[in-house]
């Protein structure tokens, strides 16, 4: 078992009775729709990066569906080509669109990462989540982007997403046979197979990716290639949007035994966001925590992909200051 780094901060739990949206707003220090609040205005990772970002809508005509997406492409200020360090595929939460997360996508692209937002096709009113299909579609989209330009072909791939999108990111990384996927960035990934669980409990245990200690399902993360890095942001279960503890994001890091068995391989970083609401990861709802997440993602990419030491951001004094300020509960790593 690898050595773990752990930083803790005690944070009181709050009531969830006011509803998911109110819970999201209360868990942020800033005002609703206020994007002006920052942690450190001089921090180069929190600030927009040096690259200019151009966007291009794109359709992916796959065998199973035609999916809509958008490419966020780093460029020099004059529009000329610049060095690109990696390719991030971002997938949204269930029932939402990547367009709701554009603050993240623009931020990553400004720091030198080709970033592609992807929307899965709507099936209308259905309880079938088709997570296996979505994971394969993610792999197909990766291959499609790689074939667009010779400059993209050899880029290390990082899958990213929120909620269902975070789970699909790990699903794709667990079933990738090409070795393209080098990392996962997951915001409160949910291990359930389809909502709402209190109405369709048998559907919720479908498509396990992380281990489920209640059902005894092993999941598939043990298939991930060694060295596939990850950063996981986890929130407490909340009644309205992420209620069932057995599907909580903690199992993507802690695994079946609390020690990481059948969970994300090393290197892995785990950010316990405490009572920061599941819907609060949408950047239109939050302030300091969103800045922390954006900054930490850039730090993870720079360390894992570019080889730049960012321990001060990921586990050291910078994130410790965030813990002391109450923006999150704890950080662990292995």
Automatic annotation (TrEMBL):
InterPro entries found in the cross-reference section: AB_hydrolase_fold, Hydrolase_4
What's the source species for this entry?
Seminavis robusta
A Pfam family that this protein carries is Hydrolase_4
Under the heading PANTHER family, the entry gives: CARBOXYLESTERASE TYPE B DOMAIN-CONTAINING PROTEIN, CHLOROPHYLLASE-2, CHLOROPLASTIC
The beginning of the lineage is: Eukaryota, Sar, Stramenopiles, Ochrophyta, Bacillariophyta
* Protein name per its UniProtKB record: Serine aminopeptidase S33 domain-containing protein
| Database matches in SUPFAM superfamilies | alpha/beta-Hydrolases
Q: Taking every annotated instance into account, which residue ranges of this chain make up the domain Serine aminopeptidase S33?
A: 86-190
């Amino acid at each position: 078992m690898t050595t773990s780094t752990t930083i803790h901060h005690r944070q009181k739990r709050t009531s969830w009775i006011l509803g998911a949206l109110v819970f999201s707003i209360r868990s942020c220090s800033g005002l609703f729709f206020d994007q002006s609040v920052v942690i450190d205005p001089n921090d180069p990772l929190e600030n927009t990066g040096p690259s200019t970002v151009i966007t291009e809508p794109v359709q992916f005509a796959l065998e199973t569906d035609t999916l809509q997406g958008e490419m966020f492409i780093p460029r020099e200020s004059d529009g000329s080509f610049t060095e690109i360090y990696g390719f991030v595929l971002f997938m949204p939460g269930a029932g939402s669109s990547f367009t709701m997360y554009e603050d993240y996508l623009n931020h990553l692209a400004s720091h030198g990462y080709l970033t592609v937002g992807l929307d899965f096709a709507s099936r209308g009113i259905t309880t079938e989540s088709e997570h296996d299909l979505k994971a394969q579609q993610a792999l197909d989209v990766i291959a499609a982007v790689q074939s667009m330009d010779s400059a993209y072909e050899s880029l290390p791939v990082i899958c990213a997403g929120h909620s269902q999108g975070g789970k699909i990111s790990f699903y794709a990384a667990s079933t990738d046979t090409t070795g393209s996927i080098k990392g996962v960035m997951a915001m409160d990934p949910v291990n359930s197979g389809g909502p709402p669980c209190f109405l369709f409990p048998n559907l919720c245990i479908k498509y396990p990716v992380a281990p489920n200690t209640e059902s005894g399902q092993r999941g598939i993360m043990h298939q991930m290639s060694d060295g596939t890095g990850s950063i996981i942001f986890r929130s407490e279960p909340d009644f309205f949007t992420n209620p069932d503890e057995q599907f909580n994001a903690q199992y993507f890091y802690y695994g079946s035994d609390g020690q990481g068995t059948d969970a994300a391989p090393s290197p892995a970083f785990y950010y316990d966001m405490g009572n920061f609401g599941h819907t609060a990861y949408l950047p239109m709802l939050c302030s300091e925590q969103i800045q922390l997440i954006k900054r930490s993602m850039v730090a993870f990419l720079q360390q894992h992909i570019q080889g730049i030491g960012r321990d001060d951001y990921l586990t050291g004094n910078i994130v410790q200051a965030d813990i002391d300020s109450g923006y999150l509960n704890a950080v662990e790593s292995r």
